[in-house]
């Protein structure tokens, strides 16, 4: 009896110890799940350890299914800062969306399970987890702030914390839509991608040929492999997917060499087809000379179809407005361009080219306006600047004490000639050459030209040098011997060109593919 009692007592002790151990493990497991948001490693007394190294993913049911909670962990035991986010329906819905996108890219060979992959500007890491769930395990995200274990910090994203040629696949999901410095971000993507690697871009833009070509121009060393429309994450709006492949170094050199060889004999350029098609939507030119040009041409401004009203001008690395013959700030920059021109929320670099010193002091107080106090001309030389007291001067100039409009001429043309106003010597500069140094073909360039007859010198020079292809939209005031408002039946003696010659200038610009508007 005594032996049986001792045996029973020992069993009770053993059972209690086992129950206590089980209770401790259960408490520990509940604590880990509550604190970490999912299973941990074996060093934390986990009941469901994960095999393998690095970041691992699974779902509540062992796979990725809609509505399930996604768990994330790292082998060293570190965890994400916001694990509760990974269990929400919104998180799961976003991950499933990108999983579907990546599955198509995987099937088509643009990304592989062994590809070292980068997701750019992914604040919470949906895209990274989606890649891992379809088997692309070597994936990481970068954003302004880190979100471990999926996303590392990249600051302003203009200096990505990776070496040159690190990744086989880069995903830019709407990052280009959000960036204010597209050229720099694109450059970083190019730098970190291996030659022959793939880049996939999602964007709400690129819905027209102009915007798509602007995007392509950001990656000159890439081939465009695919363009298609997709449903957005919320299915309420469509987005576009563009897939690129980075050329091998040898291919880039071959292409660059061919372009250099083709362009060496001449400085001329050709307007791309997508720009030529825009002319079909432009307002018609006024064919008949108006008897009251001060009314007809001014009314025509209301008919102008601005380029940004026809196309999406996104994906331009820079936006530039050049006012040639700017006169006072309020003449066109302040009164028209800044108030009326549709900029699509882009910030423009503004250049005011004005030779008349009477207006120079005014620009000193204007922020974000670069004044060039010279005359736009076909070469660098000293010019005669003549101020004519025209009775039809603009209202803004009247406020300047009746100062007339300036006209430039080479000094040699003044010898033996008759001047009708004040004459001063000024510096003229090669405008076409300056334009080619200041902007690039990938920039968005708007120009207004009001140069008192010098347009018949400047425009041919722009064609001769190829600088004309740098201009996206041109507002040109052509000066001719028009009928005078002050003196019925009389033409102005200030200009010798006729309206027919002006019309010929506008027509030649449009036939060459330049979106030019008749300006007043």
UniProtKB/TrEMBL annotation:
Ranges annotated as spanning the membrane: 12-31
Keyword S-adenosyl-L-methionine among UniProt keywords: no
Residues of the DUF7870 domain: 281-380, 427-520
Domain Methyltransferase type: from-to ranges: 142-200
A GO molecular-function annotation: S-adenosylmethionine-dependent methyltransferase activity
Database matches in Gene3D superfamilies: Vaccinia Virus protein VP39
Organism domain of life: Eukaryota
Keywords: Membrane, Transmembrane, Transmembrane helix
Coiled coil: none
PANTHER family: METHYLTRANSFERASE, METHYLTRANSFERASE TYPE 11 DOMAIN-CONTAINING PROTEIN
Protein name (record): LOW QUALITY PROTEIN: uncharacterized protein LOC103721505
Organism of provenance: Phoenix dactylifera
């Amino acid at each position: 009896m005594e032996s049986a009692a001792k045996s029973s007592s020992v069993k009770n002790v053993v059972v209690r110890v086992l129950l206590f151990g089980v209770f401790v493990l259960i408490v520990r497991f509940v604590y880990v799940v509550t604190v970490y948001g999912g299973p941990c490693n074996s060093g934390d007394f986990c009941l469901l350890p994960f095999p393998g190294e690095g970041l691992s993913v699974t779902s509540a049911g062992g796979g990725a299914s809609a509505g399930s909670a996604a768990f994330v962990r790292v082998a060293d035991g570190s965890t994400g800062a916001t694990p509760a986010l990974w269990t929400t329906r919104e998180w799961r819905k976003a991950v499933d969306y990108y999983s579907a996108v990546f599955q198509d890219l995987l099937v088509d060979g643009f990304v592989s399970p062994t590809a070292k992959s980068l997701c750019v500007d992914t604040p919470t890491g949906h895209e990274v987890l989606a890649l891992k769930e379809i088997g692309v395990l070597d994936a990481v995200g970068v954003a302004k702030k880190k979100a471990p274990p999926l996303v590392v910090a990249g600051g302003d994203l203009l200096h990505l914390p990776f070496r040159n040629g690190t990744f086989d696949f880069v995903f830019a999901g709407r990052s280009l839509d959000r960036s204010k410095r597209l050229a720099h971000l694109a450059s970083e993507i190019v730098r970190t991608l291996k030659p022959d690697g793939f880049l996939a871009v999602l964007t709400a833009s690129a819905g027209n040929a102009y915007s798509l070509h602007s995007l392509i121009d950001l990656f000159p060393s890439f081939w465009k492999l695919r363009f298609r429309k997709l449903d957005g994450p919320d299915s309420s709006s469509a987005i576009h997917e563009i897939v690129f492949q980075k050329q091998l170094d040898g291919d880039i050199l071959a292409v660059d060499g061919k372009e250099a060889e083709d362009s060496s004999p001449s400085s001329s350029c050709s307007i791309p087809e997508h720009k030529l098609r825009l002319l079909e939507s432009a307002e018609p030119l006024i064919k008949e000379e108006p008897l009251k040009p001060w009314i007809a041409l001014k009314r025509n401004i209301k008919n102008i179809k601005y380029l940004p009203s026809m196309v999406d001008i996104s994906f331009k690395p820079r936006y530039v407005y050049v006012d040639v013959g700017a006169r006072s700030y309020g003449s066109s920059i302040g009164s028209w361009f800044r108030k009326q021109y549709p900029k699509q929320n882009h910030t423009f670099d503004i250049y005011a080219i004005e030779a008349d010193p009477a207006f120079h002091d005014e620009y000193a107080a204007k922020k974000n306006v670069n004044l060039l106090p010279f005359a736009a001309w076909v070469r660098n030389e000293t010019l005669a600047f003549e101020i004519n007291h025209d009775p039809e001067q603009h209202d803004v100039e009247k406020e300047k004490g009746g100062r007339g409009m300036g006209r430039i001429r080479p000094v040699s043309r003044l010898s033996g000639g008759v001047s009708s106003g004040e004459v001063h010597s000024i510096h003229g500069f090669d405008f076409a050459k300056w334009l080619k140094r200041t902007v690039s073909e990938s920039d968005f360039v708007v120009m207004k030209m009001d140069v008192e007859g010098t347009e018949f010198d400047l425009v041919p020079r722009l064609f001769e040098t190829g600088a004309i292809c740098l201009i996206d939209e041109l507002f040109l005031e052509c000066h001719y011997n028009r009928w005078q408002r002050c003196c019925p039946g009389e033409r102005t003696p200030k200009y010798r060109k006729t309206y027919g010659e002006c019309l010929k200038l506008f027509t030649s610009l449009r036939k060459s593919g330049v979106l030019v508007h008749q300006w007043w």
